[in-house]
Amino acid sequence: MRIGRIGDRSGKVATGRRLSWRSAVIGSLATLALLVAIGAAVVFGGLYPVGASAGHSGAVGWLLHESMERSVKRAAAGLEGPRLSWDAALEGGSHFKGMCQQCHGGPGVQPDAFAEAMTPNPPDLSRAAGEWSRPEIFWIAKYGIKMTGMPAFGQQAPDDELWKIAAFVEQLPKVGAEQYESLPDAHADGGHAHDEADEGNGAGGHSH
Ligand code: HEC
Fold first, then answer.
1. Which residue's CA is minimally distant from atom 14 of ligand 1?
2. pLDDT digits (tens, 9 = 90+) for 2-42
3. Residue 8: exposed, middle, or buried by beta-carbon count in 10 A (0-12, 13-18, 19+)?
4. Which sign does the torsion angle of CA 188, 189, 192, 193 carry?
5. What is the 7 CA–ligand 1 centroid distance (Å)?
6. How far apart are CA 185 and CA 60, in angstroms?
7. Which residue has a Cα nearest atom 31 of ligand 1?
8. Distance CA 186, CA 83 (A)
9. Residue 171's closest CA among 205, 202, 137, 207?
10. Are 76 and 145 spatial neighbours (Cβ–Cβ below 8 Å)?
11. Residue 160, CB half-sphere, CA atoms under 13 Å: how many?
12. What is the rounded distance in angstroms from the CA atom of residue 38 to the CA atom of residue 50?
């Protein structure tokens, strides 16, 4: 009798547990289905505002920037570049003028107007040196950043050139407007103005 009772009781308890376990599963599945439905409505209904002029909301901007920062730091961990002289960094500056300045600006130079209207905004890189190590700057320049307009330069520039550019970015806070202006633009044959730079000089030989 006693054994039977205990059996009954434990049977009841077990049924109760099974019920709450089952309703928890059903509840989670329903929540999941709702989230998927909302996600699908946003994607297929075209509800997400993609206009760049609106900028990112605080939460989205934070999420994207935080993911980007951690991803770059992880990917660039262990990268080691060559030791470079000040002259090599200035040579990087010549490339910076032609490849980076239009979006990021430079000492004494504003970015082109279109860059101010990008989301996210290409930041002033004189502050980047405080946030990023040289290998991280190299990594960003080589591989770019998805969905931001930051291009991957790995296809058009060899690593040694990108290391020099990274070294220059690192030194940016120390480069004055006059010194920057005196650097030749290594990419000046690219199409407009600056025709005084003879083509093909490639910033190879002459640094002042
Ligand atoms: C077409 C525009 C464009 C060009 C050209 C460009 N960038 Fe960028 N860059 C961006 C944008 C936009 C971001 C912001 C990405 C973000 O916030 O996630 C960025 C971000 C960066 C960052 C991270 C800055 C930070 O503090 O978060 C570095 C470093 C950088 N760029 C280096 C370079 C270098 C070096 C070059 C030239 C070789 C270059 N960029 C050329 C658009 C550009």
1. 122
2. 554 554 555 555 555 667 888 999 999 999 999 999 999 99
3. exposed
4. positive
5. 70
6. 37
7. 150
8. 22
9. 137
10. no
11. 6
12. 17
